[in-house]
Amino acid sequence: MASVRAASRVLSKRILSSKAKTVASAVATQNRDLHFSIYGKNDAKVSDAISTQYPVVDHEFDAVVVGAGGAGLRAAFGLSEAGFNTACITKLFPTRSHTVAAQGGINAALGNMEGDNWRWHFYDTVKGSDWLGDQDAIHYMTEQAPAAVVELENFGMPFSRTEDGKIYQRAFGGQSLKFGKGGQAHRCCCVADRTGHSLLHTLYGRSLRYDTSYFVEYFALDLLMEDGECKGVIALCMEDGSIHRFRSKNTVIATGGYGRTYFSCTSAHTSTGDGNAMVTRAGLPCQDLEFVQFHPTGIYGAGCLITEGCRGEGGILINSEGERFMERYAPNAKDLASRDVVSRSMTIEIREGRGCGPDKDHVYLQLHHLPPQQLATRLPGISETAMIFAGVDVTKEPIPVLPTVHYNMGGVPTNYKGQVITYDGAEDKVVPGLYACGEAACASVHGANRLGANSLLDLVVFGRACALTIADICTPGEKLSPLKPNAGEESVANLDKLRFADGNTRTSEIRLNMQKTMQAHAAVFRTGDVLKEGCEKMDAVYQTMQDIKTFDRGIVWNTDLVETLELQNLMLNAVQTIHSAEQRKESRGAHAREDFKDREDEYDYARSLEGQVKKPFEEHWRKHTMSYVDPPTGKVTLQYRPVIDASLDEEDCSHIPPAIRSY
Q1: Catalytic (active-site) positions
Q2: Segment 126-143, tens digit of pLDDT
Q3: pTM of the predicted model, to two decimals?
Q4: Which of 136, 149, 190, 662 could pair with 108 in a Cys bridge, judged by C-beta atoms 3.0 to 4.6 Å apart?
Q5: What are the tens digits of pLDDT across the range 311-351?
Q6: Helices 135-155 and 195-207, interaxial angle, to 10°?
Q7: In DSSP terms, which residues pair with 252 in a beta bridge?
């Protein structure tokens, strides 16, 4: 063994010595100009049409996917599988995408624990959305769910199992049997409490089977739009500072959410709403951004996620008096009511003085009444997270928890096929060449509130839907229409401006001001005065972007520049979120107004519809918010779009008429 180690050391010295000589010789013989490599299997061309300061490389593909989380990977390899020459642009290595952090599971009516039906899942999702979800998209997602989970299993995803070898399904919030009348459903397929990690690695492993060109650590700057059509994307290679224009007939946005607009959230620092911002800068709308989900159980002080699966396995929330308080707020579902209901209940307990700890500012999630073997088997990650971030042994003590920003129901508006749409006041119009899926998109399957474990389902179903739609309307190898020589010029000018920005305020200071404003003024409970003040503050913070200062003037791996670009993106999401919330004069799902406590529908669904006159579209709030921003000024413009109430096939699955939502 010692001789092997000695041989290894000698070999290492030789390799290092050889490398050092090669580098020294390269430095001596080459000039010190900017060096960059061109990746990808196509014939990329270097151009100086839009910049002489930055190398610009032009690529051509049949399809480009921006983002390599669950939705992006499923769309990318679905396109490659269909024969399309596909590029996947991602600012992170694929397995570092935020899908990896999902814990609880993925919903599908497999019926492994008791009889189940996808139509019951459809009902629960419509009800969970507080009747703001588009029922055609919900129909599509819930009907496709069982096949999507079986497909993942066939890809090799190692689901937890029942004793007889079937996929184990746990209880999860808002899930019921027999259209809400049959008790709690066990519909959430999981891999212990690390389902997202397993899903992402399974999809990435599968994607390597196909011939997709990955552009890893490339930051997408903007869409290339001409005459209302999307013709590709312009991106920055973070490794060497080169600019890349990707020409494509089809562009899929799968960039995730924008949780980092808030001070305390469960999102990764990379969840900066880049896709939403690219769409906004292209003059297109975002939809329903005021609906921000607060997960009931983030670790107090740290914000780390504690999965709803804890309550699905039998965990309970208790207040300072040791009372299981959810029995008062949701007598039937109790701790497994939908997330917005649980978050509000926790906040009320704290407000009324029944919070835990010295400052009475959180509640406890109790798991120590569960068998240690169950905790070790079904919730191993949570046991570890609680010990690291809260110093708690879950087999003996409760976990201190607080509602924490977790998910964005809103995003880029799409139909159930994944095509990005706009609304012209009369009907939906498809934006040619542009698609979106995952948390970046708003299909809208989640409406005003997402049910737990519907997000991973959303990723795989609509990632696949984008690939199927493109395969249906396009053929591989189609000739691309020409791109203007100066396409992307504005993006490069903006990049250069930020790189040499020499104002008085650091990127981190502006970001903190934005996050504190959002946390204080667009929280679990909202009021008109606080929202109005928040709008004024956010508008003022937006203007401070003109006074930003960056420090790194380099171009190779300039994290200062990338963080500033991400802050620009976050700002566009934040102003739309708070202005949309201020305008919505009702409480629906995650948007809870204390000055407008009730849902404002076209009818009063608390009483018989007989004799009631339908309110005009302008006078009720069961409609989608479509928000636009003028990037130079930050001015937000809002319009509204009707909710789609019809399912895809009324005979097979009739739509669910609005009703009062209770658990």
Answers
A1: 339
A2: 999 999 999 999 999 999
A3: 0.91
A4: 149
A5: 999 999 999 999 999 999 999 999 999 999 999 999 999 99
A6: 70
A7: 65, 435
